């Protein structure tokens, strides 16, 4: 069963959406402002978020931006406004789709199904052997591909080997020697420089700011790790 987080400061709308989605076999998690949505998304097993834009405390746009920093799950925005500005702004901060109030329940559920199908096809929700992930970073050992927030990342075989090793054991620190032995299938008296060069190249491909990485971290004096997100 897919869990859908519905966030709107209008409780009647949240309850109505719950009825539509429950009838389709989904489980609904409720929130009534951006702060509650952010907390629920971080704590629960959420597969999709339906988020109103105009809300007190933290609005839907800011909440979407915050969630996108941590999670790679589909976000569908709701708004009572029909101006293109809201749509463009919402998609620009990381939303996947947009529905204008008042909405047709059939249209809403169709959009939800479409987003979940698309997300699953990108590997975002697949639970199968050989697929390793941390946040929006997905390494598929079967197809030898890397995705970042659903977008393919071009990597060399050596870079893929390093990422597979680190993402498979996200949170664990690997020394340069251990990385070299695992990926190059050989030993070296001084693998530090060789591994460091490849680490820099990987960072340039998966990090927005390689100088302040989100995923690939250095543990000084010990080695490298992929942050467990």
Mean of pLDDT: 86
- CATH architecture name of the largest domain: 3-Layer(aba) Sandwich
Provide the CATH top-level class of the largest domain: Alpha Beta
Number of strands: 11
- Helix proportion of residues, in percent? 40-55%
Shape summary: elongated
Structural class based on helices, strands and sheet pairing = alpha/beta
Describe the sheet with the most strands.
5 strands, parallel
Task: Tell me the distance between the termini.
Answer: 23 Å
Per the CATH scheme, the topology name of the largest domain is Rossmann fold
How many H/I helical runs? 8
Based on CA atoms alone, the radius of gyration comes out at 20 Å
Could you tell me the strand content as a percent range? 15-25%
Please tell me the total number of domains. 2
**Strand order within the widest beta sheet:** 2-1-3-4-5
Spell out the helices and strands N to C.
EHEHEHEHEHEEEEHHHEE
Q: Looking at this structure, what is the CATH superfamily of the largest domain?
A: Response regulator
Name the poorly predicted regions: none
Descriptive report:
The protein is an alpha/beta fold. The chain folds into two domains: 119 residues, Rossmann fold (3-Layer(aba) Sandwich), CATH 3.40.50; 96 residues, Winged helix-like DNA-binding domain superfamily/Winged helix DNA-binding domain (Arc Repressor Mutant, subunit A), CATH 1.10.10.10. The protein is built from eight helices and eleven strands. Helix 2 runs parallel beside helix 3, helix 6 crosses helix 7 and helix 7 packs across helix 8.
Entry summary:
The chain has helices at 11-23, 34-43, 60-70, 84-92, 105-121, 157-168, 176-184, 192-206; strands at residues 3-7, 27-31, 48-52, 75-79, 97-100, 131-134, 137-140, 145-148, 151-153, 216-219, 223-226. The chain is an alpha/beta fold and 229 residues long. It has two domains: 3-121, 3-Layer(aba) Sandwich (Rossmann fold); 131-226, Arc Repressor Mutant, subunit A (Orthogonal Bundle), CATH 1.10.10.10.
């Amino acid at each position: 069963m897919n869990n859908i987080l519905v966030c709107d400061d209008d409780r009647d709308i949240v309850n109505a959406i719950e009825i539509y989605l429950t009838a389709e076999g989904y489980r609904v998690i409720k929130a009534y402002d951006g702060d509650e949505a952010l907390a629920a998304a971080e704590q629960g097993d959420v597969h999709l978020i339906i988020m109103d834009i105009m809300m007190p405390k933290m609005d839907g746009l800011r909440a979407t931006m915050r969630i996108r920093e941590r999670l790679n799950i589909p976000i569908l925005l709701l708004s009572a406004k029909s101006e293109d500005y809201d749509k463009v702004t919402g998609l620009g901060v990381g939303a996947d789709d947009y529905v204008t109030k008042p909405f047709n329940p059939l249209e809403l559920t169709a959009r939800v199904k479409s987003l979940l199908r698309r997300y699953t096809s990108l590997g975002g929700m697949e639970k199968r052997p050989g697929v390793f992930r941390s946040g929006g970073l997905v390494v598929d050992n079967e197809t030898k591909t890397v995705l970042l927030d659903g977008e393919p990342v071009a990597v060399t075989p050596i870079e893929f080997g390093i990422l597979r090793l680190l993402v498979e054991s996200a949170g664990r620190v690997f020394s340069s020697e251990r990385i070299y032995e695992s990926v190059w299938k050989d030993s070296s008296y001084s693998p530090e420089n060789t591994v460091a060069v490849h680490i820099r190249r990987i960072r340039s491909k998966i990090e927005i700011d390689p100088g302040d990485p989100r995923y690939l971290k250095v543990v000084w004096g010990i080695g490298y790790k992929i942050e467990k997100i």
